[in-house]
Amino acid sequence: MRTAIAAKRDGQALAERVWAEIVAGYVRGDIAEAQMAALLMSAVLRGLERTEVVGITRAMIESGDTLDFGALETVDKHSTGGVGDTTSLIVVPLLSACGLSVAKLAGRALGHTGGTIDKLEAVPGVRTALDARTFRAHVASHGLAIASNEANLAPADRALYALRDRTATVPSIGLIASSIVSKKIAGGATTIVYDVKCGNGAFMRTHDDARQLAEMLVDMTGAFGRKSVALVTEMDQPLGASIGTGLEAIEARDVLEGRTSPQRLIEACLALTAALVDAHTGLGDGRARAGRALRSGDGRAALGRMLDAQGARVGALEALRPDALQTPVLAIRAGHVANIDCVELGECARELVALGGPFAGIRIVAERGTRVGDRDAVATIVGQTNAAIETRVRAAFDIRDERPEELPLVYSTTR
Ligand code: URA
Ligand code: CA
To answer: What are phi and psi of 119, to 5 degrees?
Structure first.
């Protein structure tokens, strides 16, 4: 191990087989944390070659179980994590309404970003800890399911991620790609769409880094015999109007019912659905099918079907309401909303949920580019609040004289 660390420190690539032995050895407890941490830091500083990423990814897949759906071809979606990003709760039903079988593995909130599992669990009764047999059965009979990774899928990733988190070795494109792809391959999907967020609210701050990660994700997925497409999407502002677990579940329901139309959230959902449908079928009619699934109400029906199957109480989704206690947050000054600090709003929303429960959080009133007066609200705090959080939410809206340039929503697509 010491030789491998020294080689990586000096910028050499380790053989695929060496990485496989190291990852397996670490999971068995045969390699000390100090040595693994030193190797990971060398990888972050020196970079990883393609064969090394293949070796790490393969070792992580082989560290646990893999789901097998037999003759059923399933699809999955992954987002690198955003704010006000409730796309999974909309895209999964839309994909199902387009006729695809969706077996989505989802995670919990990480840092300032929301987690699909937490949002689902805001619906009373819903279970997400599905064992492999139940997960397969739901996908086969209902066409869709969202499960937390309770099964023993890529356990090496869990162990490595915990160490990376503590040792500041998360930001390596190769390590991130192997972490994401290993979980998706182990989850059994035939075709995967990756949403790589780029901006002040994302892991990837620059277009260059985001595009490199997108390319690596698609390359690695192909190396394991599956199809994929990756979209780099803008995350310099919250995607939808709601931030908070239950508020985002409500927003997903209302979008699928056509009762609210947060423009960028809907556009992102249609783009991701269309990209995955096209990557899976090769027919090129994904956009039309995604639009029909939304307008016809078939997407809403699919969401209801999934939640019923996963234990939602009768009428639970219909009954969800934001906390009635609502406090407007006024603009710091008059002007245009030039920047919104997504990290700060994501963290404030998480604190508000901890304070006031799942139906607390933040609603954006003045999105990026909006002109506001000094008596206008930029946001609404939903649920119990305090002066410190109000000050932070207020300061998260940077207001300038000039109107900011509009940002595209999809920066690039990698197939
Ligand atoms: N998300 C993951 O699943 N893994 C990483 O390494 C980073 C983000
Ligand atoms: Ca999501």
So the answer is: -65, -45
The SS3 of residue 183 is helix
Q: Which residues have C-beta within 8 Å of that of residue 31, sequence separation ≥ 6? A: 1, 22, 25
User: pLDDT per residue over 246-288, tens digit each?
Assistant: 999 999 999 999 999 999 999 999 999 999 999 999 999 999 9
CA of 109 relative to ligand 1 center, distance in Å? 12
Q: Which residues are catalytic?
A: 78, 157, 164, 179, 183
**H-run or E-run covering 6:** helix 2-9
> Under 8 Å CB-to-CB from 313, ≥6 apart: which residues?
124, 125
State how far the Cα of 384 lies from the Cα of 394, in Å rounded to an integer: 16
Per-residue pLDDT band at 10 (split at 50, 70, 90): very high
| CA of residue 366 to ligand 1 center, whole Å | 31
Q: Of ligand 1's atoms, which has the minimum distance to the CA of residue 183?
A: 3
Q: What is the pLDDT of residues 139-155, one digit of tens each?
A: 999 999 999 977 789 99
All residues at 6 or more sequence positions from 22 whose CB lies less than 8 Å from its CB, including other chains: 1, 4, 14, 31, 36, 39, 59
User: 110 pLDDT exceeds 80?
Assistant: no
Helix H or strand E encompassing 414: strand 410-414
